[in-house]
Amino acid sequence: MSQIQISSSQLLKLLGVKKTFGGLVAVNNLSFEVGEGEIVGLIGPNGAGKTTVFNTIAGMYRPDSGAIYFGGSSIIGKKPHDISRLGIARTFQTVRPFSRMTVIENAMMGSLFGRDHTLSVPIARERAYKILVFTELDKKAETLAGNLTLAEQRRLELARALAAQPRLLMLDEVMAGLNLTEISDTLDLLFRLNKEMKLAILVIEHVMKAVMKLCSRIVVIDHGAVIAEGTPQEVVANENVIIAYMGNKNAEKTQQETD
């Protein structure tokens, strides 16, 4: 297994990652990192390549070139379940509960196939229930997942990922389709996760107010390449970001309104 010397505070590191599909360049020479306990936003306009980045980190795609390190070791070529066992868990843009299984059975899947991949069903159930308490789904433990509301299903996706005992949690639009109250509740939960479980979080999100409040640092990509990186305040005022989202003709006006 290849190793790289990185700072003790760095957890995930991408170096010059490229991924193409035929003639389409989805990820283009992408480099960024996520530190231990850091909350980082990965944003960009539709089609920028954000979910492809997640899929590449998670082992669903193998990059054409570049390097991905987790905890100082290369994870390129590893299968998704092996990467999960190393301590990377993720949610998906579209909720994917096992609809005919109960909420607690869904959460147990994370424990059974997560970082310590316990094969003990009673232990998995105990751990899953503790996560359901933390995510305030314990009262729905025996409810079929298919009968949950969208907000509850999104929280269940989060609970299943947490049951895998990750060091890095990757969230793909976990607030999509939620109302303002549900978004606020989700933000509160993520802050608690970060503080109490010491989790690093990498989040894709289109709800910009949520991103601005949640993330200490934001990486902006367009056409698979980084166009800006910095604090939320720095990124929102960056001309390249304004152009990517709104086009050249609106860039000057938006910049003046931001100043």
List the helices and strands and how they pair.
Layout: E1 10-21, E2 24-35, E3 39-43, H1 50-57, E4 65-70, E5 73-74, H2 80-86, E6 88-90, H3 103-112, H4 121-134, H5 150-162, E7 168-172, H6 180-196, E8 200-204, H7 208-214, E9 217-222, E10 225-230, H8 232-236, H9 239-246, H10 248-258
Parallel strand pairs: 3-8, 3-9, 6-7, 7-8
Antiparallel strand pairs: 1-2, 1-4, 4-5, 9-10
Helix pairs in contact: 3-4, 3-5, 9-10
Please characterize this protein's 3D structure:
By secondary structure, the chain is an alpha/beta fold. The chain has 2 domains: 1-87 and 167-231, 3-Layer(aba) Sandwich (Rossmann fold); 96-165, no CATH class. 39% of the residues lie in helices and 24% in strands. A 6-stranded mixed beta sheet has the order 6-7-8-3-9-10, with helices on both faces. Strands 2-1-4-5 form a 4-stranded antiparallel beta sheet, covered by helices on one side. A hairpin with a 2-residue loop joins strand 9 and strand 10. The radius of gyration is 19 Å and the shape is globular. Mean pLDDT is 89; it is low at 249-259.
Identify the notable features of this structure and list them briefly.
4-stranded antiparallel sheet; 2 domains; Rossmann fold; disordered C terminus; 10 strands; alpha/beta; 259 residues
Structure in a nutshell:
The chain has 259 residues and is of the alpha/beta class. Helix content is 39%, strand content 24%. A 6-stranded mixed β-sheet has the order 6-7-8-3-9-10, sandwiched between helices.
